[in-house]
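Good morning,

Both structures are done.
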Amino acid sequence: MTRSDTKHVSLEQAVGSLPDGAVVALAGAAQTRQPMAILREVVRQKKRGLRLVGYRDGMDFDMLRRAGCASDVDVPASAGSEEAAQARFEAGAAGLPYAIIGMAGEGAVTKAIALHDAAGNTVMAVPKINPDIAILHAHAADIHGNVLMDLETCAGFARDVIVARSAARVIVSVEQIVSPRTVANAPARLVLAADTVDMVVEAPYGAYPTRCERRYDGDDKALAAYDDAARNTEAFRQWLEDEVDAKGSHALYLDRLGMERLQAITTRRSA
């Protein structure tokens, strides 16, 4: 664990540091731990020209695409090519130009090429990804940027760690800020040390309406409402106005959702 100066910033400050045109990796899984609080602020601040990369698609990528924040989205075209996409981040984290994969697969990710070994065997390789910024959502962190996750029930976060290690900068939103003592007393839960994190933001329910393991379930009603809105340009514009622009901040967003709705999906509240 590495101690450093405070990296705890507001949601607005974190998003304000994103330059237009940056290559941004979004972590999280399908309907799980997507960094939605940060991304709603990206929409509110009208960031433009972002080049989004990831190892899966989802509501988060789709929202930024439809809101006009993204100029390009590089994600797997099918679930079968997610492993190849993940390999690109692994190569980036390891400082390698390419990652060897068994086969490109249907809808292979960007720029897969064929390579030949000395025996004439053909393998497929995919180029590395080194994003300018990786955005993640996790359970907890201290003000210095040491990030905690309950990996015994959230093994999928290991993918997010690789995404973080491939990026030049890392922004993490967390359910709560905890004391350095809490971090020191939980070494098995430390997934990112302070020297790998640039900014940490406290954003309770920051993955909503997707789920955050061991904290809350996804809101099926809200997810269905998004799917309906995404079918029509005007419906999406209205959804964006009602669900993002009109809220003004993450705190107001949660306030408007109401405690009863949030409690209905909550499974655990403490770090």
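Second structure follows.
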Amino acid sequence: VGIAARVDTLVAIFSAGLAPTGNKDPFALRRSALGLIRILSESGTPVPVAQLLRWGADSLAESQPVDASVIAELETFILQRARGHYRDQGYGANLISACLASSWKHLPDLDARLEALQAFMGREEAQSLATANKRIGNILRKAEFAETRVPDSILMLLEDEKQLFEAFENISAQVKPLLTVSDYPSSLGALAKFKHPLDAFFESVMVMDEDEKLRNNRLSLLASIKSLFDEIADLSVLD
């Protein structure tokens, strides 16, 4: 009932064009959004925020049709409140951004990611892997590389890139089953094994090789590794 009341209030008032502006919030919508977040999180209700808003829009449709842009605006509004909520819980702003950048499903799922990542950041491998993810992200962005191709082991000439590819195959096989059951602590523990092969790769391998095939294959390998990390959180935004 608490969830339904808050969703109906938020959807109805936003669709009427009365969203809060600046310091003005006459209908206490920020408080309603925060209450919704706390109920969803503390009760462990596994329903996506967007789905709740669509249900709210459907219930209002006969008397007041709700445009899709209103739902998008309201979802952003709620996520802004969620950032403040999680900061109050003791999570750093960058850590929150890292988890929000993932494919999280609902607020209890986001809670689990935040808890696992905060614990992981206490490990000695964490800083190195965050730096490596940032470096990979910069390389892919500068190369304007957005393809999702499978790396070709035949094109791997150097020992350290072969070792990194072997690590990717082994770690990926460990992580994917863990992700299906949302076991983020164990998933991050497996991903920590990337530290040494990634360090060795960046020490000895020139990613942007003059040979286009070699270059694209190395970029594919790095993109595949970052994609695996991104399943849990975008470590590249962490300090």
